[in-house]
Amino acid sequence: MSRVEIDPNVCQASGYCVGTAPAIFALGPDGIAEIKDAQGSTPGPVEIPDEYRGLVETATLECPSGAITTSR
Ligand code: SF4
Question: Which atom of ligand 1 has the smallest separation from the CA of 13?
Fold first, then answer.
């Protein structure tokens, strides 16, 4: 499992993470990215299944503002 988190104060609402990993990321009503979980979506941290680790790591690298943090 990987743990992923978004800093809403750093996110620039570019939407790149949603394009890369739409199963994990969504844009909230204010355009700021969130992470999908069983309750809806949240800034995190959220535990992500291993099958999504590669996509989440790609989204983390692509994020233009460095708003996404992943850890294991
Ligand atoms: S890629 Fe980064 S800046 Fe863009 S919406 Fe996702 S978290 Fe925000």
Answer: 5
Its pTM stands at: 0.94
Is 13 close to ligand 1, i.e. is its CB under 6 Å away?
Answer: yes
Q: CATH classification of 2-71 is 3.10.129.10, yes or no?
A: no
Give the up-direction half-sphere exposure of residue 67: CA atoms within 13 A in the CB hemisphere.
22
Q: How far is the CA of 5 from the centre of ligand 1 (A)?
A: 11
Separation between Cα atoms, residue 6 and residue 58, nearest integer Å: 14
Could you identify the atom of ligand 1 that is nearest to the CA of residue 68? 7
Whether 39 shows a pLDDT value over 90: the answer reads no
